[in-house]
Amino acid sequence: MLKHLFTLIWNRKRANALLIVEIFLAFVVLFVVGSLLVYRWQNYRAPLGFAYEQVWEVSLDPGVQPKAERYATQQQIIQRIKSLSGVRAVTRTASNTPFTNSHSQSDVGRPGEKGFRPTSNVYYLDDAAADVLQVPLEEGRWFDRRDDGAPVAVISHDLKELLFPHETAVGKLVEADGNRRVVGVAAAYRADGDFANPKPATFLRNGVQDTVFDHLRTLLVRVQPGAGGALEKQMSADIRAIGPGWSSNITPLSESRDKQMKTVLTPLVALVITCVFLIVNVALGLFGVLWQTINQRRSEIGLRRAIGASAGGISGQIVGEILVVATFGLALGLLAAAQFPLLGVLGVRVGVYLTAMALAAGLVYLLTVVCALYPSRLAAGIQPAVALREE
Amino acid sequence: MQTSAAPVLQLTDIEKIYQTKTIETVALHRINLTIGRGEFVSIMGPSGCGKSTLLSLMGLLDEPTHGTVAVDGRPVQSYSDKELAGLRNLKIGFVFQSYHLINDLAVLDNVELPLLYRPGLGSKERRQRALAALDKVGLSARTNHFPSQLSGGQRQRVAIARALAGAPEIILADEPTGNLDSVMGEEIMDLLLGLNREHGTTIVMVTHDEQQALKTQRLIRLFDGSQVG
């Protein structure tokens, strides 16, 4: 019967061409949107690599204070903030804090080795970052006072896999803002947020001799659960009191995260809504064409009933036919979809494309079956005597 | 080939009434009819007298409003849709005035069609049977043609081959020569007579042609839904 259906659809390919094109386009759209959704979903499910709850970002603006005095003022501010009840830890960092889409990147490699040097996000942090961001490590440790006088770094798992694929990274040297010894490997660090792809990350320790203020003017502060407006107000007041002319902007990381999620989700939701409209149109189109086809084929269906097809057999045949049509459309769609990973069109992992292909194909099949159910029941209701009456 | 006395089809007290909200049309009234195995019976009557309706009931394509239809002595009222479909497929072959070939299928695929609904039949056997049926009607050379590439007579021969492919005991033909010129009509009639004589196939044929009807073993006349002769 399957061969018969293929023969029938192939011989009616002109009549079915529009349906095939419609299914092809629906598949391609579903595949592209599906790829983006699967990509975002897989990223969302992956660990962020740090704890953002109860962490505040404090951006400091020294105003017109002379540059030479800024570092000292900042140190006073840090000490003052540390002493506030409700504050657990403070770390000093650059502006590329989590969820801000601000990046500082550098090519990181093994010293003395030329060739492949992967680009890595670089984060300047100090020892307290271990308490503030609570980055889980899969190897080694976070930097601390034992590293005074020796430039050290913690690298992310992704960077470790690129630089030291089959060996331990701890104890090895990496070239990032000078040569630094790796003391730990972080499982992940996705400062670009829940939906972003993991990227290589390098954490560089602010040395005690690092007294420049300008590129490390941001503080990350871990506060106690329940800390709120009063602490924030106190912190702002203290900053203004210590540094006349200084101002600050305090934002909880959870707020930045929500804002960033909205930025990512809004176009995605718009895309999904557009996609749903398209799919509804395709479904209505399929339904309409099938309904019309059944009416045009009453005589043929009656004939099939007369020569031995049961009502269930006819129903199954109609569903089978639309599945064969869908298969033709999908075959073309899969050919087009296969170009995406080959050409790296969306820049996502191959597994994402494959998952999206399977999901889109499954959805197209489901859609065609749902659209065929009612027309197939109509067809099954055609009495065999129709064959004798209709021309 | 001898006609056996055992009835292959038996219609008892058949009435068929088509009912709409406002009109009730009696298509058949108190028909009692027995078709013996190997008989060639023709049915005649003016247009609208119920010939095709009678053929539909004989072919298990429709249900009577009253009365019983029995095949090989067994009433079929209690049969499920699936059982009736199976019975039609095994026992009955249909030939229609307007051929009812599927234009998008080649001749061979059209002839194979009834065999697709027969469980347990492999594609090779289906093909062999279809080829044999086409050979019987003299169309072996047209297997890959499409119906639109054939003359009316050839199309009707394809339809007969389709009816024969399943080796049915009964062929029900509804004005099989109605759309053909006299020469082609004669060809088809000779084919049906040959099938009846040589293979013992029971044939019931609706016709308007008195000459053709006289060539059959028995003539049933209908008028206004009743049997008049």
Please tell me about this protein's structure.
The complex is a heterodimer of chains A (391) and B (229). Chain A is of the alpha+beta class and 391 residues long. Chain A folds into two domains: 1-46 and 260-388, no CATH class; 63-245, no CATH class. Chain A has helices at residues 2-11, 13-45, 67-83, 129-133, 157-163, 229-242, 253-296, 298-306, 311-343, 350-380, 386-389, and strands spanning 55-61, 87-93, 105-107, 119-125, 137-140, 152-156, 173-175, 179-186, 201-205, 218-223, 247-252. The radius of gyration of chain A is 31 Å and the shape is elongated. Chain B has one domain: P-loop containing nucleotide triphosphate hydrolases (Rossmann fold). Chain B is 35% helix and 27% strand. Chain B is built from seven helices and ten strands. In chain B, helix 3 (107-116) crosses helix 4, helix 3 packs parallel to helix 5 (152-165) and helix 4 (123-136) crosses helix 5 (152-165). The mean pLDDT of chain B is 90. Chain A binds chain B through residues 1, 3-4, 7-8, 11-12, 299-300, 303-313, 383-385, 387-389, 391, and chain B through 52, 55-56, 59-62, 81-82, 85-86, 88-90, 93-94, 96, 98, 100, 102, 104-106, 109, 112-114, 116-118, 123, 162, 166, 174.
